Amino acid sequence: MSGLKLFRMDTANSGMAEVMSRLAEIEAGVQSLVEAHMETLLGVRFLASEYSTGPVHGGRIDSLGLDENGSPVIVEYKRGTDAGVIDQGLFYLAWLMDHRAEFEHLVRDRLGVTAASQVLWSGPRLICIAGDFTRYDVHAVREHRRSIDLVRYRLFGIQVARRARRRAVARAASDVQGASMVELAGAVD
After folding, report:
1. Per-residue pLDDT tens over the stretch 41-64
2. In terms of CATH architecture, what is 22-156?
3. Which residues, including other chains, have CB under 8 Å from residue 125's CB and lie 6 or more apart?
4. What is the pTM assigned to this prediction?
5. How many angstroms separate the CA atoms of 41 and 2, rounded?
6. Contact between 128 and 148 (Cβ < 8 Å)
7. CB 168, CB 176: distance < 8 Å
8. Which residues of the chain have pLDDT under 50?
9. Cα 109–34–38 angle (5° rounding)?
């Protein structure tokens, strides 16, 4: 499987320059970005983050949502490649099916009574978002009867902007410190 590359116009060289992609530094960065734009990116209305499955199951579902058809959605994130992402998601999906009333209560609290009354339990979904997946993950999804989507992510250009911002802040701090030293030297004279 090949991916498309992203390019930007390079006016200095009158050509094209590839925009390099990268993985997130931490999983929570991907999660925050997706949760903030979940409906746009996935067609899923955001309900909850780090939802506790209680002491018996002892876990936290990364994100819970409701798709455009009214089906419950679990989103699990991994920074890179993790062979256990599908198994973890299926574990939480089983928990969800056993806790329908709790989920409907969450929907009622976040989206209202109408949305809660229209939850479609025949097609709950699992969306796994990761830097990459193994060939075994892809095969498992094809063989499984549940609705499981594997979504690869990449971040573009963010690191460069962050690095440039850090440099600008460091320069500004250095300029302020230098000006303070000059003022201090003038006061000593």
Report:
1. 999 999 999 999 988 878 899 999
2. 3-Layer(aba) Sandwich (3.40)
3. 67, 71, 72, 73, 74, 146, 147, 148, 149
4. 0.75
5. 21
6. yes
7. no
8. 1, 158-162, 176-189
9. 50
